[in-house]
Write a structure and sequence with these properties.
- By secondary structure, this protein is mainly α.
- The chain has 3 helices and no strands.
- α2 crosses α3.
């Protein structure tokens, strides 16, 4: 607390609760004020925190993007494999499909 405010507070309290009570309250408030100022974050502290959080978010975004890209590649590979297996199943279980494929490829006339 600044000195002017401290004196004003002391004078207001002195009239209500006396010298001893006023001094005790003013001293307690000054102690609290000192502790709060010591523990309060400064603008530099907040800027450093903001930078760290920003860097962490960028790293997280990069990691998630890479993981998503890898998952998409894996899913596409699985889909290709399933398509090939399904195509062979259709060809092997449907005689008309084999005839059609043979005609399209010109194997049989």
């Amino acid at each position: 607390m600044n000195m002017t405010k401290t004196i004003e507070l002391y004078n207001i309290l002195k009239d209500k609760i006396g010298n001893e009570g006023s001094m005790a309250i003013v001293e307690a408030l000054e102690d609290v004020s000192v502790k709060v100022k010591a523990e309060a974050a400064t603008k530099a502290d907040l800027e450093l925190l903001e930078t760290r959080l920003s860097n962490n978010l960028e790293l997280l975004e990069t990691n998630l993007t890479n993981k998503i890209d890898n998952e998409i590649k894996a899913i596409r590979s699985d889909m290709k494999l399933h398509f090939i297996v399904l195509l062979f199943v259709i060809l092997l279980t449907n005689p008309k499909a084999i005839d059609l494929l043979a005609k399209l490829l010109g194997i049989f006339k």
